[in-house]
Structures are given as structure tokens and as C-alpha cells.
Amino acid sequence: ARRNSGCDIRALDYVRGIKALTATLTTAPPTGGEASSKVHASGLEKMMSTVVEHGVKGLAQVATNFNKLILEEDKMLAVARVVNTLMDQKGSSDILERYIYLDPRKPSSDRSRANRTFRQAVVFMVGGGNYLEYQNVREHARGGKHVIYGATDICSAEDFAKQLAGLSGVPAPPTVTPTKGNGGAL
């Protein structure tokens, strides 16, 4: 119905396709018969199959981890948790050990860990950032701390839908223009 009315549902179709692919890959284990070897005859097909399989598993893992993150610690997202741990210098030792500290006031030969708390931080996401992360970092910055959040790309919901539609590979439907009737009322 929406398609017939001129709505651009390419993004929705793309998401449905990815969901169907995910369901297929997670419910149907690969079989090792003659039909399977014919399907994966070329090296390119094998490589693409592996990439898609790992990608789907990765997406499923990200979704699972995201669910865990939003339910823990007063809905503190991963980026806010990392920022707070690094600024307070207490909490998860795993986080504290994995990040390097670069202090412009120390000599370049001294890479020792900072033993003090920080009042200011810059968080920069390489790749897409979003308002939810930004707001979460701001809400969880405690005790007069100042955090600047940035990203290489922050897109609106409309831009995100356009990106998904572009990924679908389907050309955009023709634009529907309102017709004037009943004295120009729509």
C-alpha cells in the first residue's frame, strides 16, 4: 500500500532483507553435500559467504552486548563507562590498562600512567556518533567534569534512512507531487 502511494520504502526493504539473511544464516547450518559445493564453487563466492557469515555473527553479538550495556549501571552506555573510568582512575582495571595516556606536559619518554583524576576530557568517535551517546556521556559526567563529544559523522534519522535506502541498491521511486483539486486543498 505504501509503495503504491509513492512512499520510499527502500530502507525498510533493506532492513527486512538483512533480517531475513540473518535469520537464514543463524537457523540453517551449512550442509556439506554436492549442492553446497556447487553453490560455493568460485573462490569469490566462498569469500563473500564467509564475510557475510562473520558480519551477521558480529552484528548479533553487538546487539546482544548493547542490550546488556543499556540495562547495567543506570543505563550507562559503554562510552560513558569508559570515560568515567578513565577520568576517575578507578573502576574496571581492564579499561584502565587498555588505554594509553598522553600528557603533553610530560617528557615523551615518560609514558607512565596518570595517578590523578581528570576534570576535562575529549571523546571523539571515529566513525558515526549519535545523540544518544552524547547525551549519555553528559548525564554521567560527575562532579563538575567537562566532556566534549565529537565524531566524524553524526547524522539525523532522515539521513540514516537515506543511507539505508542507498544500501538497498534499488533506484528511488518517482516523486509524487500533490494534485490540486477542490480549490487547491490537499
Structure description:
By secondary structure, the chain is mainly alpha-helical. It has two domains: 1-71, no CATH class; 75-168, 3-Layer(aba) Sandwich (Rossmann fold), CATH 3.40.50.1910. Helices cover 49% and strands 10% of the residues. It has helices spanning 10-27, 34-39, 43-71, 78-88, 93-98, 131-140, 157-167; strands at residues 120-129, 146-154. A two-stranded parallel ribbon has the order 1-2. α1 crosses α3, α1 (10-27) crosses α7 (157-167) and α4 (78-88) runs parallel beside α6 (131-140).
Question: In angstroms, what is the radius of gyration?
Answer: 24 Å
Query: What is the CATH class of the largest domain?
Result: Alpha Beta
Write down how many β-strands occur, each being a DSSP E stretch of 2 or more residues. 2
Query: Structural class of the secondary elements?
Result: mainly alpha
Q: What does the main sheet amount to?
A: 2 strands, parallel
State the CATH architecture of the largest domain.
Answer: 3-Layer(aba) Sandwich
Report the average pLDDT across residues. Answer: 73
Order of helices and strands: HHHHHEHEH
Overall, the morphology is elongated
Low-pLDDT runs: 35-41
Can you tell me the number of structural domains?
A: 2
Organism: Compsopogon caeruleus
Family: Belongs to the STXBP/unc-18/SEC1 family.
Protein name: Sec1 family domain-containing protein 1
Pfam families: Sec1
